[in-house]
What does this fold into?
Amino acid sequence: MPVLVASDLDRTLIYSAGALALTMPDARAPRLLCVEVHESRPLSFMTETSAALLTELGDTAVFVPTTTRTRKQYQRINLPGPEPKFAICANGGHLLVDGVTDEDWHTRVQAKLAAQCAPLEEVRDHLATTADPAWVRKHRIAEDLFAYLVVERDVLPEEWVKDLAVWAENRGWTVSLQGRKIYAVPKPLTKSAAMREVAHRTNATLTLAAGDSLLDADLLLAADRSWRPGHGELADEAWTAPNVTALPERGVLAGERILREFLRAAHPSSP
It folds into this structure.
């Protein structure tokens, strides 16, 4: 029976140069494979070992890339292994089937957002009027579903982020700080809902998940078994749950460990 693996990508399976955490001596650093190029520059990496593990996983389970990235940002990534039939983008706002948006799913998501939380325009305007240009580099709207800022972390006031989280909470939105990005996302816009939809369509009998950020928490809770790396928002908060295993590995080697755990859980009889 099918095993479904829904995994976050950035800082879970793939890593920017700044997030690799190569703390070992240079001569012992793992060989890396570039899996994303943007504006003619290498942007994201995984180890060659991870690439082999992901290929094996794609051959034996329903692997579903699950990301907050927009569709355009996701399509820059060239993952090893079989092309996934399903992908979850925009934090669950878009379900891709063979690379094409499932319009019925997207319409259902939009209706839920309209009914359950404040409109995007209100959040966008609040960010525009309260975020200081001294530390904001970019204002972005993703897929007309949520907003995010690109910031200078060194001068970002922690109190501003906390105040934004309270303001958003009262309007049915949530806030997540990931690297240099601050996300404001409607609470009903979840990766877990999209994962359940794919599980239903594939008749999956076991669901596995991994992620590192606050926006992954609902996904990890919804899966039968989940893992989080030793870095990221969830690790910083020491967040866990009965079905979630907190791994000690940080950086790109955490991606290797997560893929090994996926394979071991999908095939318990394997060594």
